[in-house]
Design a protein that fits this description.
5-stranded antiparallel β-sheet; 5 helices
Length: 248
């Protein structure tokens, strides 16, 4: 995971990493303690790891942050601070930005590859041509230019984009909060699903994810491989389309 730091530095993002196995996890304040108190033991460790990762990401861009309460499932940061948190397989990761609090911010870590059969829960028919023609593990490293995408990569790109669009003025009020990890495939989202977004590749490891109902609302996402999993993160907004333009 630490190999991601140069990529995120180049994008103006700070990276924070934490694990559920770190000794002595404690809430950073009463709001975090109250939120964690009602959680099952495993979820509590994930929650606290995510908060540690967010504080580390903010410190990486020169910002301090105390406790991070939540509203629903969304973290609530103090003014001038923002981060996106993701969990997978006992690891929490977060990205933060030093400036431009209104810029879209989102990330998603998937360390357990999704099966090809999950495509129907992530994609619509007009996106299925993006998939690779095989269902097998892949190795860490940059994506081959021109290669197809795995279901895991497309899921991660959409999940990161969903968080970014839901967290800024880029998304309409009907866009609900993102789920956390592959379990979001099985949990009904309150106001939509990843299939309400459309993804299209632009270059190696980079894609644009647009809201189907309003294609001008879009973000650029980079997806990189981490072991047999992937990490997707939002680079920033994508130029909007004209009313007569086709989706990519």
């Amino acid at each position: 995971m630490s190999a991601l730091r140069p990529l995120l530095d180049a994008a103006g993002l700070g990276l924070g990493i934490a694990t559920v196995r770190e000794p002595g996890p404690r809430p950073a304040g009463p709001a975090e303690e109250a939120a964690a108190a009602s959680m099952p033991a495993r979820r509590r460790l994930e929650f606290l790891a995510g908060r540690r990762a967010a504080r580390r990401a903010l410190r990486a861009v020169g910002l301090d942050c105390g406790e991070i309460p939540r509203s629903g499932r969304l973290p609530v940061f103090p003014p001038g601070r923002a981060a996106s948190i993701s969990h997978s397989a006992g690891i929490a990761v977060a990205v933060a930005r030093a400036a431009g609090p209104d810029l879209p911010l989102g990330c998603d870590l998937e360390l357990r590859p999704l099966p090809r059969a999950a495509a129907r829960l992530v994609l619509r028919e007009d996106e299925e041509g993006l998939l690779v023609d095989r269902d097998e593990p892949f190795h860490a490293g940059s994506r081959p230019t021109g290669a197809g995408w795995t279901v895991t990569e497309l899921f991660s790109a959409k999940e990161a984009a969903w968080k970014a669009l839901a967290g800024t003025g880029l998304g309409p009020p009907c866009l609900g909060e993102a789920g956390e990890g592959p379990q979001g495939l099985r949990r009904a989202r309150p106001t939509g699903s990843l299939r309400d977004l459309r993804v299209g590749p632009t270059e190696d490891g980079l894609c644009v994810v647009r809201l189907r109902a309003d294609p001008a609302r879009a973000v650029r996402v980079r997806v990189v491989r981490v072991g047999t999993g992937v990490f997707g993160y939002v680079l920033g907004p994508s130029p909007g389309l004209g009313p007569s333009a086709a989706l990519i």
